Amino acid sequence: MTFIDKLGRWEGMIFGFILGIAAATVGSMAYNEINGLLRVNHLKRSLHNNQLDEIATLMEEELATATSAMKDGVPLELSHYLALQYMPRLYAHHMDYAYTLLRNGEISRFNALRRTTQFLTYNLAHRDLSELDLRATNFSGSELTGTNFSDCNLSDVNFWLAEMPRANLKNAEVNRTSFNHTVLSSAILTGIHGEDASFEEAVLVDASMTQLDELTHANFAGAELAQANLSSSKFPSARFDGADFTLASAVASDFGDVESMDDVNLTGANLSAARIEPDKLERAWFVNTDGLPSATAAALRSRGGVSRPEDVLEMVDPRIIAGFRAQIEEDNLIRPQDREDVLLTMLQEYYLN
């Protein structure tokens, strides 16, 4: 075979190889686009990325012109368009972008976005964030109604003041997670685990908190746990000072190893088969509490506990009681027959605080 023949053969092989690679690439791009895997094709993505500076400059110029026009007192039509039509779509885009960052694990960029646009309420309600590593994410003040955080790593996450009713946190890891002042009504917290999570003054009304075996050193001080389900859960080294368990179900729960449960409201709670250590509770209000052994109830009363509302009259300074009575009698909206009940309610709040 001559040199020319060999060269021709190699050229053919190389050309065929390049053609094959190109065909495979084009085929892959076409497949992704046909099957909806790429909703924006590669060419369009490239054009947009290359024109970013040009697009940004145009937007800045138009915005500057519109801002100057408002200083003259005569807004441009552009301003009406931006405010009434563009901004709602931009906000929706912003939330989608934030959600995509979380799905892609770009937590630092998400937190930077929060700092830059802290004037916005981040609405990620009903989004699926399950099974993600969201450590150290800042969700403070966010709208997270019905959001799915099941099986997530939520260690060091900040949920301060977030709205999270009906959120799903099943089996989430919550080391040092802050739920302080968070609304978690009707949320699912079954199986959450970790150390030093804080639910201080959180709203956990009707929340499901069953089967908690590995939640240690949690802080529930001042939390609203009315009608919550805490059955078959353990709370080693937890704090429940000032918590409200009104009508909560804590059947077979273990509060024996808590750090403290002072000033708790156990009105109407079901504590059947629950473990309670009276020396951990000062001034408990356990009116109409179910399932409490008589010996435990007696021990609680010896530590300032109240099992009948009228008993509080003997535990509060008479001068305080007289002051409350005077307030009630001066209020024309309170019927005379209701005054005693109102007094006991006011004394309950005073006694537990």
Describe the structure.
The chain has 353 residues and is mostly helical. The chain has eight helices and two strands. It has helices at residues 3-34, 42-50, 52-71, 77-103, 107-116, 294-302, 318-330, 339-352; strands at 194-195, 215-216.
Number of strands: 2
Strand order of the largest sheet: 1-2
Mean of the pLDDT scores?
88
Largest sheet: 2 strands, parallel
Count of DSSP H/I helices: 8
SSE-based structural type: mainly alpha
Order of helices and strands: HHHHHEEHHH
| Strand portion | under 5%
Instruction: Tell me the quaternary state.
Output: single chain
Enumerate the spans where pLDDT stays under 50 for 5 or more consecutive residues: 1-36
**Percentage of residues in helical conformation:** 25-40%
Radius of gyration: 31 Å
Q: What does the overall shape look like? A: elongated
Terminal Cα span: 101 Å
